[in-house]
Amino acid sequence: MRYFIEFSYQGKNYFGYQIQPKEISVQQELEKALSTLLRQNIKTTGAGRTDTGVHAKKMFAHFDFDGVLDDQLVYKLNSFLPQDIAVKKIFEVKEDFHARFDATFRTYEYYISLEKNPFTLDHSWQMWKRKLDVDKMNEACKILFEYNDFTSFAKLHTDNKTNNCKIYKAFWEQNGTELKFTISADRFLRNMVRAIVGTMVEIGNGKIKPEHLRTIIEEKNRNSAGTSAPAQGLFLVDVGYNFE
């Protein structure tokens, strides 16, 4: 039987979701808990792999298990897992349904604090020393929809067969001293969102003009784009599936 598990985590203490040699990961903690409670060696496949320090409000993974799941498994997992990983639900899916390959979209949010705020240090990019023009940043967002190849925002030396992504939405919104960037696409390249945010900030502070984003994308060179934004401001907030 194949099961999907929906969960969330705070990424501060982990070297990303995916298992890493000699480093602690969310996947490692999840598999350890499942294997202990189900008394089988359980391997999970996640909807994606978040980078070191990145958070997830809504993440999915699938695993296979030959047996009937305990009705109290979610409760037991949450009792067994560290405080910064929480399981919401577990449900059965078709035996060939895949957490990564059957995802139809992913949505990320990135948070910037426009004031010095000690309470959001682990969940936002503190930018109280700079002023950002949100209108120009949103003007640049519209340019993203003109392209599919985002090599300029991809981590170098990866095993991607293609750097093409279809972006469905991208926009900035300000609520008081909090600035939030929302971006949704069919897939994302490693480091892509943080590289886009870093470039958008350079547009917002006047270092480059919004229309220069076209040149950056068309050069297909990571060195043309801005520095990656810090990991702690990034959240995976949704993954879409057609379960029927």
How would you characterize this protein structure?
It is a single chain. With 244 residues, the chain is of the alpha+beta class. Helix content is 22%, strand content 27%. Strand 2 and strand 3 form a beta hairpin. Helix 3 crosses helix 4. The radius of gyration is 19 Å and the shape is globular. It catalyses: uridine(38/39/40) in tRNA = pseudouridine(38/39/40) in tRNA. This is tRNA pseudouridine synthase A. Its EC number is 5.4.99.12.
Mean pLDDT: 94
The number of distinct helices, counting runs of at least 4 residues, comes to 5
Structural class by helix and strand composition: alpha+beta
Roughly what fraction of the amino acids lie in strands?
25-35%
Run of helices and strands: EHEEHEEEHEEHHE
What is the overall silhouette? Answer: globular
Give the radius of gyration: 19 Å
From the N-terminal CA to the C-terminal CA, the straight-line distance is 17 Å
Count of β-strands: 9
Enumerate the spans where pLDDT stays under 50 for 5 or more consecutive residues: none
Name some characteristics of this structure:
244 residues; alpha+beta; 9-stranded mixed sheet; 5 helices
